[in-house]
Specification:
The complex is a heterotrimer of chains A (327), B (422) and C (285). In chain A, 75% of the residues lie in helices and 1% in strands. With 327 residues, chain A is mainly alpha-helical. A two-stranded antiparallel ribbon of chain A has the order 1-2. Chain A is globular and about 65 Å long. Chain B is α/β, with parallel strands linked by helices and 422 residues long. Chain B has 14 helices and 13 strands. In chain B, the strands form two sheets. A seven-stranded mixed beta sheet of chain B has the order 8-7-9-10-11-12-13, with helices on both faces. Chain B has a six-stranded mixed beta sheet with strand order 2-3-1-4-5-6, sandwiched between helices. In chain B, α1 crosses α2 (49-65), α2 (49-65) runs parallel beside α12 and α5 runs parallel beside α6 (183-199). The radius of gyration of chain B is 21 Å and the shape is globular. The N and C termini of chain B lie far apart (55 Å). With 285 residues, chain C is mainly alpha-helical. Chain C has one domain (13-215). Chain C has helices spanning 3-32, 39-57, 60-82, 90-112, 138-160, 162-179, 184-209, 216-231, 236-256, 261-275; strands spanning 128-131, 134-137. Chain C has a two-stranded antiparallel sheet with strand order 1-2. In chain C, a hairpin with a 2-residue loop joins β1 and β2. Chain C is globular, with a radius of gyration of 18 Å. Chain C starts with a helix and ends in a 10-residue tail after the last helix. The model of chain C has no long low-confidence stretch (mean pLDDT 89). The chains are: A mainly alpha (327), B alpha/beta (422), C mainly alpha (285). Chains in contact: A-B, A-C, B-C. The A-C interface holds A 55, 102-103, 105-106, 108-110, 112-114, 116-118, 120-121, 123-125, 127-129, 234, 238, 241, 245, 275, 277-278, 280-285, 288-289, 292, 326-327 and C 33, 35, 82, 85-86, 89-96, 98-107, 109-110, 218, 222, 225-226, 229, 258-263, 266-267, 269-271, 273-275, 277.
């Protein structure tokens, strides 16, 4: 897509986003805030899954650690929200470092299981270390700074941060470092042969991804004013991963699409029936069978094919985007 | 789902319409017309799903008996499942208030779900009524103006008479407590332990297990090893079923007597159990085997509608609906005027309670009750129910302590159980 | 009776259940490299089927058989209909099974609701077994014996039948077996069905003393994962050791460090995954 077209698209999206609190105040704006927060989480997962080829089931835990730290610091200890947020992001990043040290030694299914196990450990701690985390009761308290008390103010704040994070993540994956990650995804042995320090790249990639997950977690604390073990549970990682997959692994922006689709669908479906988990499960199944490259990946492939047909005279065809999907 | 479930339970009990189908004949002018939307949050899944289902049934039973109309306005009940989980409860509460524009919220079962929702409504002033959420502090140290405990009780209120009975009548001196690891558990155990230790009894050890514990064997082994005079067990829902079954299977039933929180021996638990639950002593304001004519009448009606004996959950929500009706009538249907409505709800005196005595709130917002020391006994038809052994009159949420003194001590928690250091 | 012995019994009998369920998981994982995240849901499905059969016929034995057969069918469907679309893509298979788990779980919720159900055991297995001063639930002792029986049965299958030999060869090197002209697909199908059936049997056995409830599937799944990772992929003795390890850790963890109970199980699992993913007894492909 040409730069001019892309810029126009981004401007359009931003324009739409900016008008939401005015056009659809109340509950729908809350939904929009949730979508922005979970899109950020999903994008952080995509950094690893789509660009380094490592699918994680532990990012929900990283997300939730940040939320816990913010709520503990502000609601329980009575600290300032801003310091709390910084501590939250720091905590998630440190946790990501710990995860990374263990996880970069593995790949594929083992990576998945390892991040799952690490997430379970975090969940177990949050559940049983009741004196700090409140255990089953969780931690309650409005932690947003006073100027964000109003819903539209919170929305714009979240929008600004999410937009900034998206931009940062985009810069990160487009940078030479990001390209190296892509290379690792395509063929780890090749990258090693070329002299790249693969474990170091994966380590940094994981840590960066954890940073962004923590960012999302901090925003969630402001929005939800409550945290409980559910926030770090496996289900959180699973839903985040599904958003990435539905949108398109490796597309980054697909995660935005995925978040919007999943959250809208959940709200829509829940209005009529209790069977949302079945719908979610079916989505997983159908996406894996029919559209493993997700909505955005599928759209891109479609457009690429149309483009390729137009340029029949060019030999060699366009770039093969590899498999922009779950391997 | 909400409309569906609502219709389903309404249909199931439409047959009982024969009972008192005289709706309130109010034609006084009201500010608004249109239905009164009530958001009912109940755990339809999770560890206390059995109780949650009855919450819905009990609530709907009352409305169906009264033609689903109060003060000239229709009653619309929108049900959401809180999944026995505070995060879900919060999400559903938000949805009910912001998306479905309910006039008020009612329900929730587990204390942690109630606390999460209470925190939410603190911010937006929606009336939230809690006949079942028994978290002490909502009527003690952390009262919220728009959260009212209608027809409900405080967690530490009920076990105190039991501790007294255990010490004086049963002559127990050493107990062990085992409880679910959350607020309700801390408060029930705290109420029991404080009285028991003040009297001179000893609490040998306390066990706390996560909600939804499947395997109690590690705890049962330790309990047996400690050789207490009795065990005080605070369990709700599926945990209660499993605990009672495993207790018997491990041979502890004959050896160490069990005292229970009222939720442990509640109908929602014992109706699927056999002889393993017989003999457990608990204390509660509600006793389905009680003698009061109003109780007997209620139990009969409930059995006719649902084919089961009522549990605390069915009873409490029924009473809650009764209370709500009185409050709505008092403001002539104008629930939109929140301050007046909340005020009216606080002033309700429930004269027709199935308990057979009038129920009103104390100065801090919690009712005072006569508490039965009750025991699980077998009925001629093979089912089990609770039968009163003794009645302890006028028990308040503060027990025998003065309210202000009581509130100066910390809230019951894992670390503070009111146990006197000997 | 010494508390430690008592707790050890608790751990070992729980381990028996873990073994039954995890053995199915490790067969599928070892042979087909598929991490079947629906394994827990299969456990629950088997439990509910067993519950129904006991309620209708009063026979625990039939319940176990029926559960095994019913869940084997679900396994057959999952493998031969659904997973067929994503052969060769390991991660996709994993995520697809996750979807299956979500659907199965919800279906169970629709059919049985949110309550916890107990599968009724035969009268002679109820209550405690007394030996002097010690009393221990008869059922749990029975479960231990049953677990041992399953171990012996599976061992005989793997080492004294042609199918077993093919499975073992396949665990070592599935491509070779295929290259030798043997219909490895058939072996895959049977293994998947067997693995699923074991989960179903586990559901009935577990449902009798742990009860069946909507989140039981996730709980048994993560335990199975821990057992298989620790014990080693595709190894029967490894699964037994892993089950003992996890069962004892879970019990003693609750007693000695209740706060760290989950860490005690998933910590070793994480460390093994990081440093020795094949587990204690797994063999490299």
């Amino acid at each position: 897509m040409s730069t001019a077209r892309r810029a126009a698209l981004i401007a359009l999206v931003l324009l739409v986003l900016v008008t939401i609190p005015f056009v659809m105040p109340g509950y729908k704006t809350s939904l929009a805030i949730e979508m922005l927060i979970f899109a950020t989480l999903a994008m952080s997962i995509d950094i690893l899954a789509g660009f380094a080829g490592r699918t994680s089931l532990g990012h929900g835990a990283l997300f939730g650690i940040a939320t816990y730290v913010v709520l503990y610091y502000v609601a329980t200890l009575g600290g300032s929200p801003w310091i709390g947020m910084l501590l939250g992001i720091l905590a998630a990043t440190v946790a990501a470092v710990v995860f990374a040290v263990l996880a970069i030694r593995t790949s594929g299914v083992y990576f998945l299981l390892l991040t799952l196990a690490l997430g379970m450990i975090v969940w177990g701690i949050c559940l049983r270390w009741a004196s700090v985390t409140g255990g089953e009761n969780g931690i309650r308290g409005a932690v947003a700074p006073p100027f964000l008390a109003q819903q539209s103010a919170l929305y714009f704040f979240v929008l600004a941060i999410a937009a900034a994070m998206t931009w940062l993540m985009w810069r990160f994956v487009s940078s030479p470092f990001g390209l190296t990650l892509k290379g690792i995804r395509e063929s780890e042995s090749r990258m090693r042969a070329l002299g790249y320090n693969v474990p170091l790249h994966l380590f940094i990639g994981f840590t960066v991804s954890g940073f962004f997950a923590g960012m999302a977690g901090v925003l969630y604390a402001l929005f939800n004013s409550f945290v409980s073990p559910s926030t770090v549970a496996l289900a959180q990682s699973v839903e985040g991963l599904l958003m990435v997959i539905v949108g398109g692994v490796g597309t980054l922006f697909g995660s935005l699409v995925g978040a919007v689709v999943i959250i809208s669908l959940e709200n829509f479906v829940s209005f009529y029936t209790e069977r949302w988990p079945s719908v979610l499960g079916l989505m997983f199944i159908l996406t894996m069978i029919f559209a493993p490259q997700g909505l955005l990946g599928w759209t891109r492939a479609l457009l690429a094919r149309r483009h390729a047909r137009k340029r029949v005279d060019h030999s060699g065809g366009g770039t093969t985007h590899g498999s922009q999907s779950i391997p | 789902m909400d409309r569906r479930a609502f219709l389903k339970s309404a249909g199931a009990i439409a047959a009982v319409n024969a009972v008192a189908s005289t709706g309130p004949a109010l034609t006084a002018a009201h500010a608004q017309s249109g239905p009164i939307r009530i958001g009912l949050l109940a755990p339809l899944t999770g560890v206390v799903a059995a109780g949650g289902k009855e919450m819905v049934d009990g609530f709907n039973l009352f409305w169906t008996q009264h033609g689903r109309k109060i003060a000239g306005r229709d009653i619309e009940v929108i049900i959401e499942d809180d999944a026995s989980n505070p995060d879900t409860a919060l999400q559903k509460a938000r949805r009910l208030v912001e998306q479905r524009n309910v006039h008020m919220l009612i329900g929730d079962l587990l204390a942690n779900t109630g606390l999460a929702v209470a925190e939410y409504v603190k911010g937006n002033g929606t009336p939230y009524f809690i006949p079942i959420i028994a978290a002490d502090d909502l009527t003690q140290r952390k009262r919220i103006p728009n959260v009212i405990r209608i027809a409900g009780y405080a967690a530490s209120q009920m076990p105190r008479p039991l501790a007294d009975y255990a010490y004086h009548k049963l002559n127990y001196r050493k107990v062990v407590t085992i409880s679910q690891d959350y607020t309700f558990g801390y408060e029930q155990c705290g109420g029991f332990c404080q009285v028991f230790s003040d009297l001179g009894g000893q609490v040998l050890q306390q066990f706390w297990q996560p909600l939804n514990t499947a395997d109690f064997s590690p705890y049962l082994a330790q309990i047996q090893d400690l050789k207490p005079d009795a065990v005080y067990a605070m369990e709700t829902g599926a945990d209660a079923n499993r605990f009672i079954q495993q207790y018997a299977n491990f041979g502890l039933k004959g050896k160490i007597p069990m005292l229970g929180a009222m939720n442990l021996t509640d109908q929602s638990v014992i109706r699927t159990l056999g002889p393993e639950c017989e003999g457990i002593i608990s204390s509660a304001h509600f006793c389905e085997g009680g003698d009061a004519p109003a109780t007997k009448k209620f139990v009969a009606e409930y059995q006719k509608a649902f084919n089961i004996l009522p549990s605390i959950y069915g009873f409490s929500m029924y009473s809650g609906a009764m209370w709500m009706a009185a409050g709505i009538e008092a403001v002539k249907g104008n629930v939109e005027d929140r301050p007046r409505f909340l005020d009216a709800m606080r002033k309700v005196v429930l004269t027709d309670s199935p308990l057979g005595r009038p129920v009103r709130l104390d100065a801090y917002g919690n009712p005072i009750y006569d508490v039965y020391i009750r025991q699980v006994k077998a009925r001629p038809d093979g089912k089990y129910w609770n039968v009163p052994l003794e009645t302890v009159p006028n028990v308040s949420q503060f027990g025998k302590m003065d309210p202000e003194t009581f509130m100066k001590q910390p809230s019951y928690s894992r670390t503070f159980q009111g146990i006197k250091k000997s | 009776m010494s508390m430690t012995v008592f707790q050890a019994l608790n751990g070992i009998t729980f381990a028996a259940l873990l073994f039954i369920v995890a053995s199915g998981f490790t067969l599928i994982f070892g042979l087909m490299r598929i991490v079947n995240l629906a394994h827990g849901a299969l456990y629950l499905a088997g439990g509910y089927v067993g519950l129904l059969v006991v309620q209708k016929t009063g026979s625990f034995f039939f319940a176990v058989v029926a559960a095994a057969m019913a869940v084997a069918m679900i396994g057959l469907f999952t493998h031969s209909v659904l997973l067929r679309f994503v052969t060769g893509h390991v991660l996709r298979q994993v995520l697809l099974t996750l979807g299956v788990a979500l659907v199965l779980d919800d279906l169970a919720l629709v059919m049985w609701g949110g309550d916890a159900f107990t599968v009724a055991v035969p009268e002679m297995l109820r209550g405690p077994f007394h030996l002097g001063t010690l009393s221990y639930p008869k059922y749990r002792l029975f479960l231990l014996l049953f677990g041992i029986a399953i171990f012996i049965g599976l061992w005989l299958l793997l080492h004294h039948t042609r199918l077993g030999a093919l499975i073992r060869a396949g665990v070592d090197d599935a491509e070779m077996v295929d290259a030798m002209g043997i219909d490895i697909q058939r072996v895959f199908v049977y293994t998947f069905m067997l693995g699923s059936a074991l989960a179903g049997i586990g559901g009935v056995m577990g449902g009798a003393f742990l009860t069946l409830y909507p989140t039981a599937d996730a709980e048994i799944l993560v335990f199975s994962l821990a057992v298989v990772i620790i014990g080693g992929r595709g190894s029967l003795p490894g699964t037994a050791i892993g089950a003992l390890f996890v069962g004892l850790l879970a019990t003693f963890g609750q007693v000695w460090f209740p706060e760290l109970a989950y860490f005690v199980i998933f910590g070793p699992m994480a460390l093994l995954l990081a440093f020795r993913p094949l587990g204690l007894f797994g063999r490299a492909a």
